[in-house]
């Protein structure tokens, strides 16, 4: 799905997902969907604050949750205290650098078939979401 470029496109996409396109939601969408990116709620809030519009931190968190719930974003949980929002909703995996806090797409799709043989009886594979944690070579312990 290509990034949204214009306000009318954003408004149409929000409506298509059953979301009322308020000015604050359009502002947040404009920050999120201008390119494929991985951002935290705090980063989105800072980006919105530095622009022409304003949205409270609670509005940003609620909007991100709504966008994720409606399929506009992917929520990536890297640990119990850190969540990223990914504007690329196509299935893919991530590297998370625990030293820098960066979340990076894995360029090649990992093969999910290793999981299929171990699925509980009576279930089917819906999705495989993998976050691979890495460290900088200089900080890795041997």
UniProtKB/TrEMBL annotation:
Family annotation (InterPro entries): FUR, WH-like_DNA-bd_sf, WH_DNA-bd_sf
Gene name in the database record: fur
Pfam families named in the record: FUR (PF01475)
Record protein name field: Ferric uptake regulation protein
GO biological process: negative regulation of DNA-templated transcription; regulation of secondary metabolite biosynthetic process
Cellular component per GO, a single term: cytoplasm
Keywords, sorted A to Z: Cytoplasm, DNA-binding, Iron, Metal-binding, Repressor, Transcription, Transcription regulation, Zinc
Organism the protein comes from: endosymbiont of Lamellibrachia luymesi
Family indicated by similarity: Belongs to the Fur family.
């Amino acid at each position: 799905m290509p990034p949204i470029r214009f306000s009318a496109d954003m408004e149409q996409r929000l409506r298509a997902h059953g979301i009322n396109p308020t000015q604050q939601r359009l502002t947040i969408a404009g920050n999120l969907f201008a390119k494929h990116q991985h951002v935290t709620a705090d980063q989105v809030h800072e980006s919105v604050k530095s622009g022409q519009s304003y949205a409270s931190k609670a509005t940003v968190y609620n909007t991100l949750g709504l966008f994720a719930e409606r399929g506009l974003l992917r929520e990536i949980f890297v640990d119990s205290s850190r969540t990223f929002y990914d504007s690329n909703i196509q299935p893919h995996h991530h590297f998370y650098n625990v030293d820098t806090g960066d979340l990076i797409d894995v360029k090649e799709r990992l093969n999910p078939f290793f999981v299929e043989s171990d699925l509980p009886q009576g279930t089917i594979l819906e999705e495989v979401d993998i976050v691979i944690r890495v460290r900088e070579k200089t900080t890795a312990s041997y």
